């Protein structure tokens, strides 16, 4: 009697779902942040998609080193249909969740039917996981697909973490760092550091991350530009994603002008790729700013 074929590839995702196939997946479709992460690990996606915050073209701020002229963008949010994904013949889809197992950026009905056609892996990048933990989950997925972080990238991350920790232990590391996302001419979203894996990692390396006022909002405190100015940051991590309000909407605000005059302003991607190379670049950029080199 013929025995059933064993699955040659398996991966248990952060919903506890086992994705499996007879062959190691080679054609991967991924949410743009996941795609950028896998690219850094050596996997080229055959397609990427965005979230409800995104539009008809990929957000360059989210895409890391992805060659956007070579990797098709399949759509975003409600504009991403089942047929759009299946048209590129994926044998694996990699999506994200911010907790609770809900697939981020895909219509629930689309996500449900997608799993009837192709294995789907969902990685948790929410506040319940450290930055290193997110990176390791992607590294584990990469290893299952036959790729791995390069030794140079891992060594670069170690150097970047050490340099930042060494600086924050000195007097020059006493600068106050505030992460924010512009909401418009009259509003700004101030990040709660403990709710973001990358900001929590900065705190763990000794960075003086600024805590906004208590109140509603799990990840952000939504207030005014006056609230941002009152926090008196020395370094501002400014959300560079396309869904953040453009500078033209708030550039004339006197409170923002006061912040920008006082602080070093660095672009910040809250959806940075989960790779050693991307995290090293994030830490190194802040180190340069704290040293006054930015």
What is this structure, in a nutshell?
By secondary structure, the protein is of the alpha/beta class. The protein is built from nine helices and 13 strands.
Topology of this protein?
Blueprint: E1 9-12, E2 18-21, E3 28-31, H1 32-41, E4 47-50, E5 73-76, H2 82-86, E6 92-97, H3 108-114, E7 120-124, H4 131-144, H5 151-168, E8 176-182, E9 188-191, H6 197-204, E10 208-209, E11 220-223, H7 225-230, E12 235-239, H8 254-262, E13 264-268, H9 276-291
Parallel strand pairs: 3-4, 3-6, 4-5, 6-7, 8-10, 8-12, 12-13
Antiparallel strand pairs: 1-2, 8-9, 9-11
Helix pairs in contact: 5-9
Please explain how this structure is put together:
The chain has helices spanning 32-41, 82-86, 108-114, 131-144, 151-168, 197-204, 225-230, 254-262, 276-291; strands at residues 9-12, 18-21, 28-31, 47-50, 73-76, 92-97, 120-124, 176-182, 188-191, 208-209, 220-223, 235-239, 264-268. With 294 residues, the chain is an alpha/beta fold. The protein folds into two domains: 9-144, Rossmann fold, CATH 3.40.50.1980; 151-291, 3-Layer(aba) Sandwich (Rossmann fold), CATH 3.40.50. Strands 8, 9, 10, 11, 12 and 13 form a six-stranded mixed β-sheet that branches. Strands 5-4-3-6-7 form a five-stranded parallel β-sheet. Strands 1-2 form a two-stranded antiparallel ribbon. Helix 5 (151-168) runs parallel beside helix 9 (276-291). The longest helix is centred in the middle third of the chain and has 18 residues, at 151-168.
């Amino acid at each position: 009697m013929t025995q059933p074929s064993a699955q040659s590839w398996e991966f248990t995702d952060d919903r506890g779902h086992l994705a499996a196939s007879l062959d190691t997946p080679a054609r991967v479709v991924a949410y743009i942040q996941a795609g950028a992460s896998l690219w850094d690990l050596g996997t080229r996606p055959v397609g990427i998609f965005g979230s409800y915050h995104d539009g008809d073209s990929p957000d360059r701020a989210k895409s890391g080193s992805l060659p956007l002229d070579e990797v098709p963008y399949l759509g975003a949010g409600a504009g991403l249909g089942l047929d759009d994904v299946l048209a590129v013949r994926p044998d694996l889809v990699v999506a994200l969740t911010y907790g609770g197992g809900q697939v981020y950026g895909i219509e629930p009905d689309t996500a449900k039917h997608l799993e009837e056609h192709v294995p789907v892996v969902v990685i948790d990048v929410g506040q319940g996981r450290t930055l290193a933990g997110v990176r390791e989950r992607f590294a584990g997925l990469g290893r299952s697909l036959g790729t791995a972080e390069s030794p140079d990238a891992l060594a670069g991350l170690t150097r970047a973490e050490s340099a930042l920790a060494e600086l924050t232990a000195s007097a020059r590391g006493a600068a106050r760092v505030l992460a924010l996302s512009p909401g418009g001419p009259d509003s700004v979203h101030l990040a709660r550091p403990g709710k973001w894996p990358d900001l929590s990692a900065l705190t763990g390396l000794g960075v003086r991350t600024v805590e906004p006022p208590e109140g509603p909002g799990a990840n952000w405190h939504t207030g005014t530009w006056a609230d941002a100015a009152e926090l008196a940051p020395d370094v501002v991590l400014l959300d560079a994603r396309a869904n953040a309000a453009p500078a033209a909407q708030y550039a004339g605000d006197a409170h923002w002008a006061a912040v920008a005059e006082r602080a070093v302003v660095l672009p910040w991607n809250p959806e940075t790729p989960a790779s050693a190379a991307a995290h090293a670049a994030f830490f190194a950029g802040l180190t340069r700013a704290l040293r006054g080199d930015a």
